[in-house]
Amino acid sequence: MYLMQRIFEVDPWNVVTHKLDKENKRLQESLTSLGNGYMGMRGNFEEEYTGDSLPGIYLAGIWYPDKTRVGWWKNGYPKYFGKVINAVNFIKMNFLINGSQLDLDKDSISDFTLDLNMKDATLTRSFIVDKSGSKIKFNFVRFLSVAQKELSVQKVSFENFSNEKVDIKVISSLDADVKNEDANYDEHFWNVLDITKNSLIAETKPNDFGTPRFTSGMQVNYVTDLPETDTNITDLETSTTFEKVLESKEIGTIEKRVIVLTSRDYQDIDDLRDAMEGISAKVAKVAYKDLYCAHENVWAERWNQSDIKIDGDTDAQQGMRFNLFGLFTTYSGEDSRLNIGPKGFTGEKYGGATYWDTEAFCIPVYLGISKPEVSRNLLMYRYNQLQGAYINAQQQGLKGALFPMVTFNGIECHNEWEITFEEIHRNGDIAFAIYNYTRYTGDKSFVLNEGSKILTEMSRFWADRVHFSKRNGEYMIHGVTGPDEYENNVDNNWYTNFLAKWTLKYTLQILGEVSKDQFAKLAVSDAEMKQWQDIVDKMYLPYDEDLGIFVQHDGFLDKDLEPVSAIPKDQLPINQHWSWDKILRSPYIKQGDVLQGIWDFIDDFTEREKKRNFDFYEPLTVHESSLSPAIHSVLAADLHYEEKAVALYERTARLDLDNYNNDTADGLHITSMTGGWLAMVQGFAGMRVHDDGSLSYKPFLPKKWNSYSFRQVFRGRVIEVAVDSDGPHFNLISGEPIQIEVNNEPLMLK
């Protein structure tokens, strides 16, 4: 139905092409992005490129308040839209061949290769350029160290393929004259505080909103066989020039090692400078191969624990690893101040902020591939931002806490009213994440302490946000947007009402388990608990008896319910071809809404309920949210719709690699890269964790595959699951023995 755009070769471990695709340069840049959780960058070139490009280097936790410009202001509207900003360009290196600037947009090149190696997270590029009467082969290698998070390493070599001598000049810079493309900024946003031959310290410019200013520092050292010939320092840039005349067949090499630090980790500029110099001096003493090996070894450990292997379908294998690679390069979990932006370090769209994607989609995956502390830190991120959630609720005249749709600091900073203050189901998604963490890990220490505080304040919000319909004798929630953002300002979105009811019920349960001291701190009155129970007992959940479905919202069934297959193919995706008015009037669903709730609580619904709702809603779903295909794949697998499950897996796993939604050029869909794991583990393997803490599987093998296998972290254990033509096989890699259930039969793993 949707056209794929595949510009890289299919390979199990590499994203590689032998074509410089100038028409799709931005897409190439997105798909070759790198990151190490601390910083990241798009795959744009080090050197000047005069064709279309979207350069981007981003530092974790560094952002700026972009002034919100709207035509009609509303009370409670956010004052700014927080956005990640382009960092000081520390990878910049220009090359002159016999005095003429290298520019791959204009120059004649051959033997081009661009290769992202996912196994060890390196980006290489090579080509031969015919320029100024000379022929030179260039080779670039780039990686962001995961062994030393502050370290960026570039290595460039150039070989003279000419019969004559050639003059090579390298001008390497730290450049603070950078801008964002998708922003209201009209000028650069870094004020340089200190600049020397080998270092640059800059601070974000002042803002009118009282948000923090950030300082970043970069220090560079070089390892090269080229003589240094010049230094140039301006207000915003420091550059060093290296130059050498290469004999025929002679090779020149330059390594650029940059240490990058930010004020998030240092008390003042002196501390930052001292640390920058200290780490830089330490790194300068280490050989390139040792820096590379240290980085490679960490990646080897990651893949050893989390790799998913698929035999018989290289497309599927590459897609799965690309998903996992995107997650690993974005977030590693050591810092509870950080979260997972929908684009990670790969683009400016969505501002690099935190969305509900984290709780709904990322935490289930990180629970399975990482130690529990990683997911707990994501929950602590929300707890530490409770003060901002209070403010968000107060701006709407409501009690309790409303966690933001989009944020860096807990304060809402999204600028679309129908999303910002109507898509309030995110409060329920956060409550579900607390429950999900507790159920999966068996660790109640969070929910009985910090978690109980979050749940209590969100319950106070829900109790104030609902209203009681005297006519119907039920509680309702009007004026909301559900996960399906192609429906705005609706009444009684089933998913929102369901999560509100569930959150209140879960909070009451937890209040019965907390200590006396914690209960006293929460100061929940008997009247509050009585009200919350009344809402639980009388919450309105739209349902249609004839169809046997939960109705997405009041009035949904009054639409012309034509399936997506009725839309002419040349009008897809509809968000790029239809007016917003036409989309709102249509029955088409952006992503799972009712089905999102069924996926969340899949054990709580009957086979008939799951089937009726899936058969009704999936044909109406255009899957134009990157988050959509994965949950539909899981539900399809649960219903034994194997062909549909596999098709939706392929879509989620290769969403960016094949540019399904025609929007990958502005960055990857990082939070939806959880989709491959979810579709495989919850879908094909049928993994479920039940309320009693038991673990079960109902695996099947897609017909087009020979086998698949994965490792799963669960309650101090690592379990290996393999499925082939002989059936499922389970192995306890580490940890205490555990009894699991496979196809409704007990199995002891020792």
TrEMBL record:
Residues 687-747 form the Glycoside hydrolase family 65 C-terminal domain. Transmembrane segments: none annotated. Substrate binds at residues 356-357, 590-591. One of its GO terms (biological process) is carbohydrate metabolic process. Gene3D superfamilies: 1.50.10.10, Glycoside hydrolase, family 65, N-terminal domain, Maltose phosphorylase, domain 3. Residues 17-264 form the Glycoside hydrolase family 65 N-terminal domain. It holds the Pfam family Glyco_hydro_65m. Residues 321-677 form the Glycoside hydrolase family 65 central catalytic domain. GO terms for molecular function: carbohydrate binding; glycosyltransferase activity; hydrolase activity, hydrolyzing O-glycosyl compounds. The active site is at 485 (proton donor). Belongs to the glycosyl hydrolase 65 family. PANTHER family: GLYCOSYL HYDROLASE-RELATED, MALTOSE PHOSPHORYLASE. This is Maltose phosphorylase. It comes from Companilactobacillus nantensis DSM 16982. The lineage of its organism: Bacteria, Bacillati, Bacillota, Bacilli, Lactobacillales.
